[in-house]
Amino acid sequence: MTKQMHLAAHFPGVNNTTVWADPRSRSQIDFSSFTHLARTAERGRFDFFFLAEGLRLREHKGRIHDLDVVGRPESLTVLGALAAVTEHLGLAATVNATFNEPYELARRFASLDHLSGGRAAWNVVTSFDAFTGENFRRGGYLDRADRYTRAAEFVATARELWDSWTPDGTPRPFAHQGQHFSISGEFTVPRSPQGHPVVIQAGDSGEGREFAASTADIVFTRHGTLEAGREFYADVKSRLARYGRRPEDLKIMPGVTVVLGDTDAEAQEKAADIRRRQISPQNAIVALEQIWGRDLSAYDPDGPLPEIDPDPDSELVKGRVKVGDPFTVAAKWRALSEAKGLSIRQTVIETSGRQSFIGTPASVAAQLTEFVAADAADGFILVPHLTPGGLDDFVDHVVPLLQERGVFRTEYSGPTLRSHLGLPTPVRKG
Question: Luciferase-like domain: from which residue to which, for each copy (predicted)?
Answer without folding.
Answer: 26-339
